[in-house]
Amino acid sequence: MSFQLPPLPYDYQVLEPYVDKETMNLHHTKHHQAYVTKLNDATKDTDIVAICQNIKNYSVAVRNNGGGHYNHSLFWKWMTPVGSSNVAPTGTLKEKIEATFGSVDEMKKKFTDAALTRFGSGWAWLGVKNDGTLAISSTANQDNPLMAGVAEVEMIPILGLDVWEHAYYLKYQNRRAEYIQQWWNVVNWDEVVKYYDNYASKNKPVPINQ
């Protein structure tokens, strides 16, 4: 079966005022849909995790659009309306973050810096490396840390932020720093914890359908 645009787990307006309705609508129905359409045109393979992990075997079109599909499929789940999730990581992930970065706030500062300093379009990531340690990185364009031989830091992403201008320009224009700061208000920490507990801590990539 070919790749499909996943439905959002919420309405377009519910992340207001931090992420606006019009941006969410365009980002999902136009940008993500375009990645899905072009990915289906570029390959008949249907395992998106395997595609990302073996991306060196695929064309540039698959790399760009396969990354776009994987990244966005999780990005929608990494956000949630205010009040519907814990406001910070919990359990083992919280302990791991504190042991690695000193505190959750310090981790957020490092993540924010990775997002701010990514030149041009790309993503910032929190993930789990092969040795089980946590790391923060950024990637260009639609690359992600699953892409062996492409990502500077190879790991299983458990949280990612889209810093392409299409993710924020209608509301924040060129104010990427403000967009990043406001985005923290809608992070779905319950989902991030689930991805760590159920997948990344066991060295399993997070599937786009759970």
Which structural traits does this protein have?
210 residues; 3 strands; mainly alpha; three-stranded antiparallel beta sheet
Describe the sheet with the most strands.
3 strands, antiparallel
Rg, rounded, reads 16 Å
- The secondary-structure class comes to mainly alpha
Strand order of the biggest β-sheet: 2-1-3
Count of beta strands: 3
How are helices and strands ordered from N to C?
HHHHHEEEHHH
Residue windows where pLDDT falls under 50 for at least 5 positions? none
**Please, how many helices?**
8
Q: Beta-sheet strand percentage?
A: 5-15%
Report on this model:
- The chain is mainly α.
- It has eight helices and three strands, in the order H-H-H-H-H-E-E-E-H-H-H.
- The chain has a three-stranded antiparallel β-sheet with strand order 2-1-3, sandwiched between helices.
- Strand 1 and strand 2 form a beta hairpin.
- Helix 1 packs antiparallel against helix 3.
- The longest helix has 22 residues.
- The two termini are 17 Å apart.
- The model has no long low-confidence stretch (mean pLDDT 97).
Question: Would you spell out the secondary-structure blueprint of this structure?
Answer:
Blueprint: H1 21-42, H2 48-53, H3 60-75, H4 91-101, H5 104-117, E1 122-128, E2 134-140, E3 156-162, H6 169-172, H7 176-183, H8 189-198
Antiparallel strand pairs: 1-2, 1-3
Outline of the structure:
The protein has 210 residues and is mainly α. The chain has helices at 21-42, 48-53, 60-75, 91-101, 104-117, 169-172, 176-183, 189-198; strands spanning 122-128, 134-140, 156-162.
